[in-house]
Amino acid sequence: MTKKTKNIIILGLIMILTATIFTGCGQKNMDNVKAEENQGTLEKIKASGKIILGTSADYPPYEFHMEVNGKDKIVGFDIAIAEEIAKDLGVELEIKDMEFGGLLADLKTNKVDFVLAGMTPDAERMLEVDFSTIYYNAEHTLIINKKDIDKYAGVNDFKGKLIGVQRGAIQEDIAKEQIETPQIKALGKVTNLMLELKTGKVDAVLVEEPVGAAYVRKNDELYMTNIVFKDEDGGSAVAVNKGNEELLEAINKTIERLINENKIDQFVIEANDMMDNE
Ligand code: ARG
């Protein structure tokens, strides 16, 4: 081998080595960036031993307040699902109750780790957060005061009426799109909307059908119409922060298991029973 060939070989080796070191570093940096982004996520949750759920507990049978042995508790089928997610992750569940309209802001600032609140994964929200597979489907309907039954035969009779909706919920859009020239009153809590309905301050409240049914069973003055509203985005899903793939994957796994075991239907029945026997 001539000296020249030797030099070329050595130079080549050096180049390969340098390239390897640089790509190696690059890879490592990428991994670090990813790990940092995932703070507040699966790793952090597991390390802290708890996962924080954001919900709006005014929505029976999804989530609601109930007195258990003299103590206020938040229960419902969303809560049962959240418990299963926590169990599968091997951590405790902590619940933060707030107004529905504030949930995604708290999720995005990591004040909560995930949201279950009968939340519909609509296009606008999908730009802000990521959603699990849909775990439950429901239609929407109007609840009215029993004394008004004769006034309303169909959706056309609600033209120009004052419709109560939850602030930040998709029911506001549904009302605007599917009722003619409605007036809208948006309140933070569904519980208060139902009070307004009882006292004649709104003409009707638009909610998911199982929720309307639950309130009607508890309140003799209320009545559920048989009007059904279409909802293309339909269904409830769990929300997590964008880029939180590992957590989302774990949540989807739990949901898949619960669906396969017919557990979700069971949780819905149990939540309704709890509500009725309170
Ligand atoms: N499904 C509707 C939405 O996503 C209403 C959900 C209200 N949930 C609640 N817990 N209050 O906008």
TrEMBL record:
UniProt cross-references to Pfam families, sorted A to Z: SBP_bac_3
Residue ranges constituting the Solute-binding protein family 3/N-terminal domain according to the UniProt record: 50-270
Statement: the UniProt record of this protein carries the keyword Plastid: no
Entry keyword Flavoprotein: no
Gene3D superfamilies per the UniProt record, alphabetical: Periplasmic binding protein-like II (3.40.190.10)
Domain of life: Bacteria
Keywords: Signal
PANTHER family linked: ARGININE-BINDING EXTRACELLULAR PROTEIN ARTP, MEMBRANE-BOUND LYTIC MUREIN TRANSGLYCOSYLASE F
Name of this protein: Amino acid ABC transporter substrate-binding protein, PAAT family
Originating species: Proteiniborus ethanoligenes
